[in-house]
Amino acid sequence: MTDVEDEQGPTRAGFVALIGEPNAGKSTLLNRMVGAKVSIVTHKVQTTRARIRGVAMEGQSQIVFVDTPGLFRPRRRLDRAMVAAAWGGAADADVVVLLIEAHRGMTEGVKAILATLRDRVGKRPVALAINKIDRVKAESLLALSGEMNEAFPFERTFMISAERGYGTEDLKRWLGSMLPEGPWLYPEDQLADLPMRMIAAEMTREKLTLRLHQELPYELTVETEAWEERKDGSARVDQIVYVAREGHRGIVLGKGGETIKAVGQAARAEMEEFMGRKVHLFLTVKVKENWLEDPERYGEMGLDFRDGA
């Protein structure tokens, strides 16, 4: 069979869930696979709240990635809703990829995931991706791979660096071959099925998270309140940053408003690069003391309020 005939073979499409502990590199891998930034990436754990779907093409296969929140021991309603979303994403997928960090190995958190993984995903194929391989020696990788495969019957094991791109093409090709035959689910040039309003809100939330570090852990959310398409091709975007306490408002604003101004500039630049056009971004900071108990906010984040009960 020629390469051309091979390329014209049956189309495939399906969902791939990326699961793992917080900060394992799921969002970085999603962005690498899709070839564009569609998921929030920070050095803080638990920053991915919604099941973000990124769409990647691999030959005749369309891979729809479900980037799930990290799996951890939930304490609050938001935590519980995030963990429920993660397991829900895995249960709905055609293929599951468990990401672990090479230098951390089989942690207690990974053991907890493995303990319930088969019950959660049924007979779906599960691949292991050992990420951040550039941080450890080869013999350590082989030992970790053996230990993990003794603990769970993975279909395949991949050694990757999501950040640098090592091994990710092999993983992508394998995923494409594992999907069921069928028509593509999205237009070929579509990167994500999140509305642009939500992607824009995620971009601003990422900049806030990076800027504020430990000062304001998880008690803020960003909502795109209004989106106006202008005649000159630009867009006006109005967003509200909700914080839980009055004291947090001052932290987000910064001295003389310098923090929110810097965040706005960084978020606007990323939106312009992503959309390929000019963006006019306006940010407002509001105190909403009970937003962590507001069902509407959970819906905005793609989470189910009832899952946090």
From TrEMBL:
Compartment(s) where it occurs, according to its Swiss-Prot or TrEMBL record: Cytoplasm; Cell membrane
Domain Era-type G intervals: 12-181
KH type-2 domain sequence ranges: 212-289
InterPro entries, A to Z: G_ERA_dom, GTP-bd, GTPase_Era-like, KH_dom-like_a/b, KH_dom_type_2, KH_sf_prok-type, P-loop_NTPase, Small_GTP-bd
Region of interest (G1), ranges: 20-27
Function statement: An essential GTPase that binds both GDP and GTP, with rapid nucleotide exchange. Plays a role in 16S rRNA processing and 30S ribosomal subunit biogenesis and possibly also in cell cycle regulation and energy metabolism.
The protein's name: GTPase Era
Organism per entry: Rubellimicrobium roseum
Organism taxonomic ancestry: Bacteria, Pseudomonadati, Pseudomonadota, Alphaproteobacteria, Rhodobacterales
Name of the encoding gene: era
